[in-house]
Write a structure and sequence with these properties.
Layout: H1 2-28, H2 49-67, H3 75-78, H4 81-104, H5 108-125, E1 132-133, E2 138-139, H6 143-163, H7 170-193, H8 201-220, H9 229-248, H10 253-256, H11 264-277, H12 279-294, H13 307-314, H14 318-337, H15 345-378, H16 391-406
Antiparallel strand pairs: 1-2
Helix pairs in contact: 1-2, 1-8, 2-4, 2-8, 2-9, 4-5, 4-9, 5-6, 6-9, 6-12, 7-8, 7-9, 7-14, 8-9, 11-14, 14-15, 15-16
Length: about 425
């Protein structure tokens, strides 16, 4: 575990330093796009943070390779260097595509084609594929089926992560929590299966990705000075999918039986845990695709109806919306990890209590709004006079003022009716779809 922490630290330090450099260069040369209608920020902000994250990941892998001669435990990661080379090549490709999209706004078909090429590099050249599903000993029927499933899984996760990138610190924080839990699970799993050599490519990828997120968060925390852009979000999705597949696709039930405990929970964990740590992005992705297809649009057309947008529209501040995403991710991922330690009722209890608490916090603004509406409807206006502000108006104005104070940037022009802020601190123009 110490070596994993060292690699995470290297990734964090390099990413942080490069993030500062990217931030300064971007402002010096004006490398930031105009604010789009669906954006939640109010001032132009550089979107090239993915470059810094890739630099941190690349340096951490270089350090791991450099010290592998002194620490034989790392040899299992670099025994077949083609896998690492293919993963880093795919990461470079996806970062280039992401940067190009952040600068020139590529069409969705070009981006999707690049994602499939990157996923193909990982699955075909790198050999990171789903060979078996550890549920009842199911084995993938053919090499082509294995390759196809792996490629589509990687592309799915990349887009799911990219879709939730809409609030300061959201993707970096969710990925930090998810990969932090996942690296602990992989470490514990391999330590029990093979106590003499419990390192794995999956654990190294997850640890390095945790470090990259830690190093990037200081500049991405609200109010963000630097965004990761498509380059960073797609990079996180690529590495998360690769890490999950390298465990899920290669752990069989017969291997899990060596743990010496009931096979039920351990057999399902390699499938459930990767899904649990990514359930929030995947849910948002699925809802977005269904919503757009039902409206007769491309599934990759942009809109302002993602889950984080809905939380803000419900009345949460942007910071509260981000923390709610963190809470859901932590409850589901940590809850699934607890199934590794019997008795399993503790894990079930943790998930049930956590879900109830998260649900109450998530939907609390709806209850407050209903209460304010009731009070406003019962408040007498007076004889022949119109109240200047009823309780509901006062509450909405206070909410709008709080959101406006949290924003960094110029205030809207009062003479422009389209620039007036709504109750959630977002202009009406921001509520329109593209």
């Amino acid at each position: 575990m110490t070596l994993l922490l060292v690699l995470a630290l290297v990734s964090a330090v390099i990413t942080f330093g490069l993030s500062i450099a990217v931030y300064r260069v971007s402002h010096r040369y004006g490398l930031y796009p105009k604010i789009r209608e669906r954006d939640m920020h109010t001032r132009p902000t550089p979107r090239l943070g993915g470059i810094a994250m890739f630099g941190g990941v690349l340096c951490a892998f270089a350090v791991a390779f450099a010290i592998s001669s002194r620490f034989p435990i790392l040899n299992v990661v670099f025994a077949d260097p083609s896998s690492v080379i293919a993963i880093l090549a795919a990461a470079l490709l996806i970062v280039v595509i992401g940067v190009a999209d952040d600068v020139w706004d590529l069409d969705w078909m070009t981006k999707l084609a690049g994602q499939f090429v990157a996923a193909g590099l990982v699955a075909w050249l790198g050999g990171v594929q789903i060979y078996s599903l550890p549920i009842g000993g199911i084995t993938v029927g053919s090499s082509w089926m294995s390759l196809t499933m792996s490629v589509f899984a990687i592309v799915l996760v990349m887009n799911a992560i990219n879709f939730i990138d809409g609030l300061d610190g959201l993707v970096a924080g969710v990925a930090l929590i998810a990969n932090g839990v996942f690296v602990i699970y992989v470490y514990l799993l391999y330590r029990e299966i093979n106590p003499s050599n419990y390192f794995s490519l999956s654990a190294v990828i997850a640890a390095i990705l945790v470090g990259a997120c830690v190093g990037f968060l200081p500049l991405n925390w609200h109010p963000a000075r630097l965004f990761m852009g498509d380059a960073g979000a797609l990079l996180i999705g690529l590495l998360m999918a690769t890490s999950a597949i390298s465990v899920t696709g290669n752990i069989s039930v017969s291997t899990l039986s060596t743990l010496g405990r009931s096979q039920l929970a351990p057999a399902f964990l390699p499938i459930i845990l990767p899904f649990a740590v990514m359930i929030v992005p995947i849910l948002d992705f699925a809802l977005a695709v269904l919503r757009r297809l039902r409206a007769g649009k491309s599934p990759f057309s942009a809109d302002r109806k993602h889950l984080h947008h809905r939380l803000v529209d419900m009345g949460h501040s942007r910071m509260h919306a981000v923390l709610i995403f963190y809470a859901w991710t932590a409850v589901l991922s940590v809850g699934c990890l607890l199934f590794f330690f019997p008795p399993y009722w503790k894990a079930v209890s943790f998930i049930v209590v956590g879900v109830v608490i998260c649900a109450i916090i998530t939907f609390a603004p709806l209850g407050r709004r209903k209460a304010m509406t009731t009070i406003a409807e019962l408040t007498p206006i007076g004889d022949g006079a119109v109240a200047h502000l009823d309780p509901l108006d006062q509450a909405y104005d206070a909410s709008a003022a709080d959101h406006a104070a949290a924003d960094i940037g110029p205030e809207p022009d009062a003479a422009d009716p389209d620039a007036a802020r709504s109750v959630d601190g977002v202009t009406p123009a921001h509520k329109e779809t593209r």
